[in-house]
């Protein structure tokens, strides 16, 4: 589907969805508490069939965090970006590791680097950093005087 | 830090493979739960070579950050650089000269051959055949020499820059590549005689580490790992970049989903890479090797995503720009990370002795996973 057709199909599914223009792919903004139903629809409804979660990450905007999910359908060859704004003090969003197994590790990575709590994640532990690491290193206000990563 | 030893309450053994283990080819740590010789669970512990490249890139300019990416998947350094260059070009909307596009694709495919060569030698060594390692390095050395002449380096080349390539080709480049290709075509048959057709090797590989197509998609696998499970995911075919749209080659798909299928996909991919190079090497157009760009690059405000096919699968570069000279946030979607997450699924229920064959065919490069 083209971006336009995809947008129409998404509006047909839920008229309340908000879109962000200007990107290469269609961007959908969704509140954190509505992400899970949308994810389920994108995966299960045959017209979307977004079966491939190829990128899951987070951006720290200093006032808030934004989760970014890049989805693609290997069947229809369309790409879709879902964004969800999270509260920076208590970032929480439902896990999608039961929908796309790829999300299991990717969410663990975002958890330890940004401190996002993925609700109902089966195994939310640190993956890359040591167990006693303090802080969320990819946040903008993180400074580490020992391991300098800022040049 | 993660040391877990002893037995579980159910009486299963817990053993550690790595972080220093010859079969992990890098500092990967696996905590394996064993019932007798059967694997019940594998839990990877990562981060032994984590350098926080993503954070580092936030304070490097768009010309500088590309050099760091050579250190991620060091066997596909060219292709990593290619992805970053393409992503920056997408933001700048620069038209890359055709000559540079040809050079880039030839270099990518040479890298792919060199990477698969190393994998082939190392994997054969993992399952007990030592000779292939020397055969593979003999051919890989030829490619490294070609690279050294043109790029000035053998492993972390840093040859691709936004707008094109760093320098023009060495005068002898075309002739040397053609000599190599002529020699190399015969070598693949030799490899097949030596390893692929070997019944001991086949028994070791077939039916081991099975991954279904559904799981491959769900785990976000890409590259030869997914294509061995008949998932058509080749970025070069699906979203062609540079001159990949102009060349004829086949996307190698196998249906086996086991270690042998993954092995066989890579062997055939080497042949396809040869095919791509053959089509391009005589037709490199004359002209500029680099587009004219400003000394200081500034990407417009926005988000840019570029994916390429490395030797291991789909590499994605996601740049969030605020309009400055450095990226606001950068994310590398590394193919190895997603492929590794499927390891538990593949190895569960199998024997511990087969783990090496499964892991060998995943072709893991740890710095690519840890970043």
Describe this structure in words.
- The complex is a heterodimer of chains A (151) and B (371).
- Chain A is α/β, with parallel strands linked by helices and 151 residues long.
- Chain A contains three helices and seven strands, in the order αββαββββαβ.
- In chain A, the strands form two sheets. Chain A has a five-stranded mixed β-sheet with strand order 1-2-5-4-3. A two-stranded parallel sheet of chain A has the order 6-7.
- In chain A, helix 3 links the parallel strand 6 and strand 7.
- The relative contact order of chain A is 0.14.
- Chain B is of the alpha+beta class and 371 residues long.
- Helix content of chain B is 46%, strand content 13%.
- Chain B is built from 15 helices and nine strands.
- In chain B, helix 5 packs antiparallel against helix 6.
- Chain B is globular and about 65 Å long.
- The interface between A and B is large, with 35 and 45 residues.
User: How many beta-strand segments of chain A?
Assistant: 7
CATH superfamily of chain A: NADH:ubiquinone oxidoreductase Nqo5 subunit
| N/C terminus separation of chain A | 43 Å
- The third-level CATH topology of chain A is Beta Polymerase, domain 2
Strand content of chain B: 5-15%
**What topology, given as strand order, has the largest sheet of chain B?**
1-2-3-4
Number of domains of chain A: 1
